[in-house]
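Homework help thread (please don't just give me the answer)

Our assignment gives two proteins as sequence + structure token strings and asks us to describe the second one. The first is just a warm-up. Here they are:
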Amino acid sequence: MNGIDYIAQILKQEGVEWMACFPSNPLISAVARVGIRPVAFRHERGAVMAADGFSRISDRQKFGVCAVQAQAGAENAMGGIAQAFADNIPILVFLGGNNLDRLSVKPNFTAARTYQGWVKQVEAIYTPNQVGDVMRRAFHALRNGTPGPVVVELTGDVCDQEVPEAARTYKSPKIHRQVPEASAIEEAAAALIGAKRPVIWAGQGVMFSGGADDLRELAELIAAPVFCTMPGKSAFDERHPLALGAGSGTTTGPANEWLTGSDVMLALGTSLTRSPYAQKIKPGKTIIHNTNNPDELNKDEAADIGLVGDTKLTIQALIACIKAKTGGKGTGDRARTEAEVAAAKATWMAKWTPVLTDDSEPLSYYRVIQALNDTLDPENSIVTHDAGAPRDTIVPFYTATTPHSYVGWGKTTHLGFGIPLIIGAKMAQPGKFCMNLMGDGAFGMSGTDIETAARSGAAITTVLLNNSAMATYSGPTQGTIGKEAREAYGVSTMHGDYAKIAEGMGAVGLRVNTAAELAPALRQAQKLNAEGRTVLIDVKANVEDRRSRF
């Protein structure tokens, strides 16, 4: 058994069922021989991003796996890997490698050297005896510590060699969770009990740890409303009376009110990274910061109390401590807090409801989002955005319910991520309706993977906002591209019949021009997806420049 075949056997042992790939890697045939399905994408970046989407849905119980070729393949994959690294997503990427005697010869690409700083861990295989050890370290890194991309470079002639039987000793590493120090839990519990206006800031670590139910219990126990970050959106049911909604650079009125006026903020499962795609933390608060990475404490925000540990276990420890201190009663006036949240939401929605229900043509982004809320079954759907205006408009207004009913992303914002991400999500949850919302600018970056979805049977729906422009850069108050470039040279202008393009790639193309056509098109897409057909809905949209910013 050579190194490649041994890796395939290990992947099978680890429960891997499919692998994204493009265009060539010896592992592709090897995994097929052991019953792992390879799915070929149309670009290396898309293959990596689909693995990312799969991992986002799987909460570190399963991992997206991807294989690309040496040299150009490893170079093209870097954009997708950078996205996973920025968002702390655990994926396993196999790169084809040069032969041992060519590793340091210009211009040959060596990932073990070049990828440093882009990934959580990268390791090349230099002897056949290493294979099992390298794979054990890889899966340990995927399961433990801060999530992130793990890369294995398959040195060509080394991995072709026989792995000695004595070296075939792979043992699957277990996950190891830690709890914060008891004294820190005590201090945090006391701060929350003493708070006059607490707020919870929930990141994606809540979902990765399986802590969504515990989060709800804690919020109710201390009468604290919950704000979800963009990656954390869907960690807390937005129909709950303590839900403030979610935010990227845009957010809801209630979220802005509590993030501004709170005195104690409990940040759970989050890095608290400052970003144009995140809400700012206002000064003058006591910050209690939970993360599984001590390097994130005091990175961007000063932590008054640090809780380093698994988020679910941290929440459970806080619940137990607060109950012990309050005789099981908890703290705060839940009825009053819920009434205040409802009032703040009513004030905010009074401004936005006319926008969300406006049937004017071309259709606004918000009218499309309202149709999603009205038409989809949220518990049986997975929705994601793309970069730019679709992200800024949908994150505050789409109602997320159960964990991963919405997938938020984007500390680095790669246009076109939505299509491969939602294909990966469909591979993780094939029984759910999986949909991405994107603009026509983003389509140019990944649109050919509509063919991947159609060919593979991972039936998705893409709702494309077709306005022949990049709204983030084209509106009167958006971006830095002025009318000099737009009007004289057509910068930010593009055209396409995307329904027709989708049909040419084996999908079903639907066109929507009026508000009355939105719900029927979405219902038809759900029916077609259930039959295994991929759908693109081409919506004639406005150039939307309104944002819920504060």
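The one we have to describe:
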Amino acid sequence: MMKARSLYNSVRAASYEPRATSEPALAARGPMARSSITLSKKKLSPLVAIVGRPNVGKSTLFNHLTGSRRAIVGDEPGITRDRLYGEVEWLGHEFRVVDTGGIVPDDKDFIPAEIFRQAKVAFEEAAAIVMVVDARTELAGPDRELARLLARTGKPLFLAVNKMDSDKQDGLLDEFHVLGMRNMFPISAEHGRGVDDLLDAILKVLPAKPKTTAEDAEFAEKNGDEDTPTSEEPHEIRVAIIGHPNVGKSTLLNQLTGIDRAIVSPIAGTTRDSIDEVIQYKGRKIRFVDTAGIRRKGKTHLMAEKLSVVMARKNIEDADIVLFMVDATEGASGLDANIAGYAHESGRSVIIVVNKWDLVASGEKRAVSQSKTARIQDAKRPQDRALYEERLRYGLKFLAYAPVLFISAHTGKGTEKILPLIEKVAAERRKRITTGEMNRFLKTVDFDRASVPVSKRVKIKYMTQAGVAPPTFVLFTDRAVKLHFSYERFLENQIRAAFGFMGSPIWIKNRARD
């Protein structure tokens, strides 16, 4: 637990790589998707793929190159599964790097086969490939098979012999000449030894993109460079997809982005690293982050699972909006309430997404109800959406402000409503009300209707909005006392009735004014 907490405290903003949705994928999503989602015109830097069999140090090298702790690292083999992208800067040049899962080419099991499929996508995108091997273990069949596979790509190859922490181990290099790669480098990804030589060699084969300086940007603007933005771009909307394991988060990410970005399987806990993908919707960037499923504390045993939950919670805190997913066939459990509570308490805007509704609507499955009365109602109206939402809101009372969508991530039904709703909730989150409007609003509120003990009542002299994202209001009152919960809830409801703020929590603070 201490290791997980240490990582949580030390993780900072990771290097995320914007990637546009592909044209064929958009075509598959229909005319409505094509009309609203556009491709990014940003010229991407060249890409370097990091590959190798499990547990050789690929993620450690990725973290060292990107200067982040984005990839989860541990002693357990097979932690990384999906592709992770990051940015590298070296000697004034920039390029991208992608971390892949451990490859075992001949393993036919579902997860290893999907990891291999994701890695092959990285091969095709990459301008150069770094194969990582472990100097402390003997070469195995998967190493030789992978080397032969990479040689057939025809791309520049580099062999990084990892875990060579001192010059005394240089004799271990001889064994790896059998792989047939001329560009071989002894490195220690953990300590950074030899990594600079590897980067120097990579730059020689890449059409490296020089880092843009302030002077370059000014020159490009004066000369009308169309690739350089002349006005400030709108705020990027960060959307985290959260929920318990196997609720359909990765399927929804793939559906929204139009590509098979994340591995999807019926095995709970398939996603471990947080996977992100960027699309442009009506000229604005939306970054979706698929997080690992959050389990109960007693259910997480492997360190990789514990760190996945830590990273998921960090991604919630970094997000603007959270898509909180609920399995329609299970309903909102105590665990779901805890997960949603993380988003609510951190001030994130929330959209509740009820997934797998097609199974309930078709009668294939029936929603699980907790009470006997609810089960009787379900028997009479099993596909009643309004009844289901009423029961859902009862279990998630603190999310009364969050809109609810019923979708099927698998078929795509209902997902077309998500992007317009994200756009609306993002605008509501940053809405600002003038002090004059707030004080005129105060005069219309009948505070005698608030069910608050007389001893806890305060007189509000005036009120102002102090911040946005989330909307934060400051009351100047006649007494320096903490607002009674009922009083605060009453005022929040009145603010929402007058000004909206759909999907966003409202924070209210009070100060005494003499």
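TA reply:
I won't write it for you, but here's a hint about the kind of observation we're looking for: Confidence is low (pLDDT under 50) at residues 1-35, 74-78, 224-231, 267-272.
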